[in-house]
Structure formats: structure tokens, C-alpha cells
Amino acid sequence: MIKLRLFLISIILLGLNACSSRPNLEQDTPTIADTVEQRTQKINALENWKIQGRIAFIQGKERESASLYWQNNLVEQKQELNLNTFLGINIFSLKSKQGIHQLEVDGEEYQSDDLAALLYSLTGLQLPVEQLHFWLFGLPAYTSDQLTFDPITSLPTNLHSSHNSKLWTISYAGYVRKNNLDVSTKLTIRQGDLLIKMQISDWTF
Q1: Which of 27, 28, 117, 129 gives the lowest tally of CB atoms within 10 Å of its CB?
Q2: Residue 71 belongs to a domain with what CATH number?
Q3: Distance of CA 199 to CAs 16, 41, 102, 125, Å?
């Protein structure tokens, strides 16, 4: 059970509904689409953000899902990440501050200054945890990342990235405009036979 939960922890740190068609912009009134450069500047100017929603992972015949709460304060270098079952039972709780990560699972506490290494030691999985922040917003984490944009909205539709010699594919299928910034509400991450789905119900920044 702990091994499965730790695997879920790793998955949540990656980032859900694949779609190759044009992203759907969910908003009450039409707006002028930002250029790629304008949107990138707005994202880079953010000092904090918070998302709430659902996450699921599918690998082979296994499927797991949970509710998600993730808050990130970029100025103070703090983050809080909670994953709960739909019955409200906490699967894990992560708190990070200035590079120190504290992870609580089943009453057991783990701490490290290297989150990726900590997760690897617990799960055996090498995961691009630092890259997820960029992928969540549809930004490249590496200069070699390849992005595809919608020709009308200029919003990301697909991102291909190589991490630890493995190909990661992120698809974006749904956008909402919050505080003059378009952010994705549905994304999917694929790596091999692993499929991760995230549906974000609320963005705050």
C-alpha cells in the first residue's frame, strides 16, 4: 500500500484529458489572444499560484485517481501539495521551503533537499519534478523542448520533452482566462505506457 501511495506521490508531481484538437478557451467574454512572448512574460511575472482539481494515472490495467491541492509561493520559495482520496482521506502531504522538502505518508515523515532523489529512493522512479512547473503552464523546461501552438489563439497544444533519455509528451485540451492570463484546465502527460491526467477546476494567482 505504501509503495502504491508513493507511486501516486510521484505521479502528482508530474502533472490530465488528451486531445489533439484546438484547445477550448473557456471564458465569458471574447478577448484578444496574447502572443507567445506576451503570455510567457505574464507567467514569468507571477509571484504565487494555486491550483485545485483532480488527477489520475493509468498504467496497464491499473488506474488511480485523487483530488489535488497545490500552492506555490515563488517569492518565498515555498510550496504545499496535498493529495486526498474522494472520501477525504489524505494520501500524502508535501511541504517545501527554500529547498527543503518534507513529505508525510501514513504518519511517516521523510525529508531531503533533493525532491527528485527523495522520490527516486522511495519509488525507484526518475521523474522530472522540477520541469513540471514549466509544463503546467505550457512552457519549455529545456531549450530542446518542442512546442506546438494553435495558429489562432497562440496557446500551446502539445509539448515534447526529453528527460533522462525518455520522451515525455504533454497535451493541452482546455483553457480558461484568469486575471488576464490563459491557463490550461486539462492536460495529459504520457511517458511509455504511463498516462497521467489532470483536470484543474480552479486557478488562483
Answers
A1: 28
A2: 2.50.20.10
A3: 6, 24, 25, 23
In the chain, the amino acid numbered 68 is L
- Three cell numbers written together for 80: 504545499
Answer whether 0.70 is exceeded by the pTM: yes
Q: Please check the confidence at residue 201 and state whether its pLDDT lies above 60.
A: yes
Amino acid at 82: N
Q: What is the pLDDT of residue 28?
A: 38
Separate counts of helices (H) and strands (E) for the chain? 4, 14
CA gap 30, 42 in Å, rounded? 19
> In 3-state terms, what secondary structure has residue 56?
strand
163: pLDDT confidence band, cut at 50, 70 and 90?
A: confident
Give the β-pairing of 146-149 and 108-112: unpaired
CB atoms within 10 A of CB 166: 13
Please give the residue that has the higher pLDDT: either 5 or 104.
104
Spatial distance between the Cα atoms of 145 and 162, rounded to a whole number of angstroms? 7
Residues 84-138 pLDDT 10s:
887 778 777 888 998 898 888 777 888 889 887 877 776 555 667 778 889 999 9
For β-strands 25-26 and 175-178, DSSP reports them as: parallel
DSSP state at residue 35: P
Side chain identity, residue 10: S
Full residue range of the structural domain in which residue 98 is found: 2-204
- CA 172 to CA 126: how far, in whole Å? 23
